[in-house]
């Protein structure tokens, strides 16, 4: 049987926990048969902790994986001090993401799994994107088509507005964008998650979903028209749902994804319920991209050793989910 291409795991911020996690993920997965990955990173950061094979192409990863971490070298410009990010290393962080996407677009990587970046560190080096999500869309030449989903065994959430201030989120929330995001989520649940008739729950924006206009009228003027348009297309969606109760254990079984109006409305419930198993997924692009749901964790970053201080669960969940999504896309999903 032909093996699927390996996943490309990126460097992330080299001063964060990414290098530790890459080494630990390899230790946990090397004999598991759950898929192969290669790390686009600086071999000097991990070679004291795990055996490393430097590879020149993704195709060499499979043969190396059982015995060593396959590393496609992306050297850092300056010495890495764990916990102390340095924007001079932004070039390596960005190059790693760029190469991973190129391999995925060419079908030479089964998907991209990103290690966390610190947005302000990249911004200090002139990086013009607020996060991976928007950068990946630009690399795929599909700006504006990207959406962010966070998925865990208990909940899936999609924020309509993402990396903007709360004030800007309110100013930029439109019926058109809610419809576009819900359509992409609906299609992705079918294609990448094997959910053939997705059920969408659309959140309100205001307390009590506006209380019939008493506490804000965005539900009436913006959200309900989006729901009407989605239903007219045959998409199963309900709402506007009061945001304070829609994430309860009783409510969650009735939908497959919650479409939320702003970043923290979506991410707070998910990370509170399931930080360990939560995965950040980019939908709407031709490539598969997943990521752990946590950040760079500079406060616990240390030299990469044989013992990993950071919790690798979310990265492992991201790697597994990328493999599952890839299987669904290729008709191998179950
Ligand atoms: N996917 C991404 O690239 C991504 C996601 C979220 C945040 N970030 C970035 O990360 C940076 C730091 O963000 P933050 O401090 O808000 O969040 P964070 O997730 O980095 O850290 C929050 C707390 O959780 C702990 N933590 C995080 N991951 C952990 C792990 N795997 N094991 C054990 N403890 C862990 C940290 O030590 C810290 O105490 C920011 O610059 C942010 O932009 C990146
Ligand atoms: N908003 C995400 C989170 O808090 O988990 C995170 O910042 C990652 O965003 P990108 O995947 O766009 O880097």
UniProtKB/TrEMBL annotation:
> Which NCBIfam families does the entry mention?
pdxA, PRK05312.1
What the entry lists under Pfam families is as follows: PdxA
Query: Where on this chain does a divalent metal cation bind?
Result: 163, 208, 263
Entry annotated with the keyword Zinc: yes
Record note on cofactor: Binds 1 divalent metal cation per subunit. Can use ions such as Zn(2+), Mg(2+) or Co(2+).
EC class of this enzyme? oxidoreductase
Report the InterPro entries cross-referenced here: PdxA, PdxA_fam
Origin organism lineage: Bacteria, Pseudomonadati, Pseudomonadota, Alphaproteobacteria, Acetobacterales
Q: Which GO molecular function annotations are given, in alphabetical order?
A: 4-hydroxythreonine-4-phosphate dehydrogenase activity
What does the UniProt function comment say about this protein? Answer: Catalyzes the NAD(P)-dependent oxidation of 4-(phosphooxy)-L-threonine (HTP) into 2-amino-3-oxo-4-(phosphooxy)butyric acid which spontaneously decarboxylates to form 3-amino-2-oxopropyl phosphate (AHAP).
The record makes one more remark, namely: The active site is located at the dimer interface.
Q: Can you state the subunit structure given in the record?
A: Homodimer.
Q: Which family does it belong to?
A: Belongs to the PdxA family.
Q: Which residues bind substrate?
A: 132-133, 271, 280, 289
| Cofactor(s) recorded in Swiss-Prot or TrEMBL | Zn(2+); Mg(2+); Co(2+)
Which pathway is this protein engaged in? Cofactor biosynthesis; pyridoxine 5'-phosphate biosynthesis; pyridoxine 5'-phosphate from D-erythrose 4-phosphate: step 4/5
Q: What is this protein identified as?
A: 4-hydroxythreonine-4-phosphate dehydrogenase
Known catalysed reaction(s)?
A: 4-(phosphooxy)-L-threonine + NAD(+) = 3-amino-2-oxopropyl phosphate + CO2 + NADH
- Print the keywords alphabetically: Cobalt, Cytoplasm, Magnesium, Metal-binding, NAD, NADP, Oxidoreductase, Pyridoxine biosynthesis, Zinc
* EC number(s) recorded for this UniProt protein: 1.1.1.262
Checking PANTHER family in the record gives: 4-HYDROXYTHREONINE-4-PHOSPHATE DEHYDROGENASE, D-THREONATE 4-PHOSPHATE DEHYDROGENASE
Annotated localization:
Cytoplasm
Principal place of residence: cytoplasm
């Amino acid at each position: 049987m032909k093996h699927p291409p390996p996943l490309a795991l990126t460097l992330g911020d080299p001063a964060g926990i990414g290098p530790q996690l890459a080494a630990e993920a390899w230790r946990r997965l090397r004999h598991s048969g759950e898929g192969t990955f290669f790390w686009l990173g600086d071999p000097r950061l991990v070679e004291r902790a795990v055996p490393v094979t430097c590879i020149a192409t993704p195709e060499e990863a499979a043969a190396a994986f059982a015995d060593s971490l396959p590393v496609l070298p992306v050297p850092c410009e300056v010495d890495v001090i764990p916990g102390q990010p340095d924007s001079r290393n932004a070039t390596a962080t960005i190059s790693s993401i760029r190469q991973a996407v190129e391999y995925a677009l060419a079908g030479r990587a089964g998907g991209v799994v990103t290690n966390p970046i610190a947005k302000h560190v990249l911004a200090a080096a002139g990086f013009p994107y607020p996060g991976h999500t928007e950068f990946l869309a630009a690399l795929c030449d599909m700006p504006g088509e990207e959406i962010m989903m966070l998925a865990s065994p208990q909940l899936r959430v999609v924020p309509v507005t993402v990396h903007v201030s709360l004030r800007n989120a309110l100013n930029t929330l439109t019926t058109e964008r809610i419809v576009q995001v819900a359509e992409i989520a609906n299609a992705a649940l079918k294609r990448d998650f094997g959910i053939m008739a997705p059920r969408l729950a659309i959140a309100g924006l205001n307390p009590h979903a506006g209380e019939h206009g008493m506490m804000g009228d965005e539900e009436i003027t913006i959200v309900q028209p989006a729901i009407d348009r989605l239903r007219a297309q045959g998409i199963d969606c309900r709402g506007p749902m009061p945001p304070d109760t829609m994430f309860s254990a009783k409510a969650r079984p009735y939908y497959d994804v919650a479409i939320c109006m702003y970043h923290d409305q979506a991410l707070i419930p998910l990370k509170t319920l399931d930080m360990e198993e939560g995965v950040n997924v980019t939908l709407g692009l031709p490539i598969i991209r997943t990521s752990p749901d946590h950040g760079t964790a500079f406060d616990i970053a240390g030299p990469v050793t044989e013992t990993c201080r950071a919790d690798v669960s979310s990265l492992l969940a991201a790697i597994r989910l990328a493999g599952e999504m890839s299987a669904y896309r290729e008709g191998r999903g179950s």
